[in-house]
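Q: Hi! First time doing this. I have a protein sequence and I read that you can turn it into a structure. Is that right? Here it is:
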Amino acid sequence: MTEAAAITAVMRALADPTRRAVFERVVGSDEITVVGLTRGSGVTQGAISQHLKSLRLAGLVAERAEGRNVYYRAEPEGLGPLVDWMSHYGVFWRERFANLRTLLKEIDP
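A: Yes, that's right. Below is the predicted 3D structure, encoded as structure tokens:
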């Protein structure tokens, strides 16, 4: 997968608020099953499975089968393409904060 495609996959996967909530629940657990994610979510088991598939294809979660259960865990390196993309804009924010700092010093020496 190219860098641009990886960034797009991660952004698309995290663009959906329900999918972000599923991802956050996976991140908050060492490992969790679809049944565990479905409990208390207000989302059907089929929908959770579809969200997990999107997250897996984007490289954000990994799965491990054990008997009849599939356990999901977060893959932190899956966020790498997004972090790399955002780091390109770090210069922009550093310059803006430096300008703000200068302005605040001028206003209130």
